[in-house]
Specification:
The chain has 9 helices and no strands. The protein has 305 residues and is an all-alpha fold. It folds into 2 domains: 63 residues; 231 residues, Cytochrome c oxidase, subunit III, four-helix bundle (Four Helix Bundle (Hemerythrin (Met), subunit A)). Helix 3 packs parallel to helix 9 and helix 7 packs antiparallel against helix 8. The longest helix has 40 residues. The mean pLDDT is 83.
């Protein structure tokens, strides 16, 4: 006998989320642009407002979904759609980061050598006759040929070329240890939940959150050191742009994953989840494993190679 597919009542929450994301895009883009130009502005206030709007909308949306699940409205057919939805969402995130990694690979292996006169398309060197291809590229080709950089880039270059053994190499190394360990702890917590051991679940999930938030703290410390003491900024050539773009987007995803798992811990403390019904946490754990894998790729392409 076929089951009836539950269709929720009409809601304004999707519209509210769309408006919140629009405000987020405006606030984030203006904040980054102003920071890159060194302009003091209040754009960050728009960004903070968007965060408040997003989390408020998510709170009411998640609350409604949880109530529906506890009321028995989420039948197996609907739960299957949640699984497919989360899988497609993570796949879209994979493509999101793939685009950035591919852009970095294209710049390093094609664009910069062509500008330096190498390869079949090396004739592009006629645009910047004095430009020499090198990585990391800390200045733009016109700066290399004409005016040169306004500030000494030796410290930024030293930081960028140091890799995991460089000036601040221990910071990304520690972050790698923290994030990979957190992937193990979240898996152990998942096993505890499937075994019906809520105490084990809460303990190991709490350890996961400590490791995750420590990762964010260390990432912020690295940004402070690189930006303040070594002059590595968004304006430090294409390397500075790609470095902060890739690590910044990943850090944002870690924050999002940590917040999701924090909500799951609060739900568990209120008695939510059973060994057979805990897809909310399972989806969060999938996402956490995803950001771990992305970090491993990011370390390889940005810090090591």
């Amino acid at each position: 006998m076929s089951q009836q597919y539950y269709v929720p009542e009409s809601s304004k929450l999707p519209f509210a989320m769309a408006i919140s994301l629009l405000v987020f895009i405006i606030g984030a883009s203006n904040t980054v642009i102003d920071a890159g130009k060194g302009v003091q502005s209040n754009s960050y206030l728009i960004l903070l407002l968007s965060f408040a709007m997003i989390w408020t909308t998510m709170y009411f949306w998640f609350k409604q979904t949880i109530v529906e699940n506890h009321a028995g409205l989420n039948n197996p057919m609907l739960k299957d759609s949640y699984v497919y939805g989360m899988a497609w969402f993570i796949f879209s995130e994979v493509m999101f980061f793939f685009a950035f990694f591919f852009a970095l690979a294209y710049i390093r292996n094609f664009a910069i050598p062509w500008l330096g006169g190498e390869g079949e398309k090396g004739l592009a060197n006629m645009l910047w006759p004095g430009f020499e291809a090198s990585w990391p590229l800390m200045i733009t080709p016109d700066q290399a040929v004409f005016a040169g950089p306004e500030k000494d880039m030796s410290l930024a270059t030293a930081y960028a070329t140091g890799g995991l053994g460089g000036v601040l190499g221990w910071l990304p190394l520690w972050n790698t240890v923290l994030l990979l360990t957190s992937s193990l702890t979240v898996h152990i917590s998942h096993l505890g939940l499937k075994q019906g051991n809520r105490k084990k679940f809460n303990l190991w999930l709490g350890m996961t959150l400590v490791l995750g938030y420590l990762f964010v703290f260390v990432q912020g410390l690295e940004y402070y050191e690189a930006y303040t003491h070594y002059g590595l900024t968004l304006n430090t050539g294409i390397y500075g742009t790609t470095f902060f773009m890739l690590t910044g987007f990943h850090g944002f995803h870690v924050c999002l994953g940590a917040i999701i798992l924090t909500i799951m811990l609060f739900r568990s403390l209120k008695g939510h989840f059973t060994a057979d019904d805990h897809f909310g946490f399972e989806a969060g754990s999938w996402y956490w494993h995803f950001v771990d894998v992305v970090w491993v790729c990011l370390v390889a392409f940005v810090y090591v190679m």
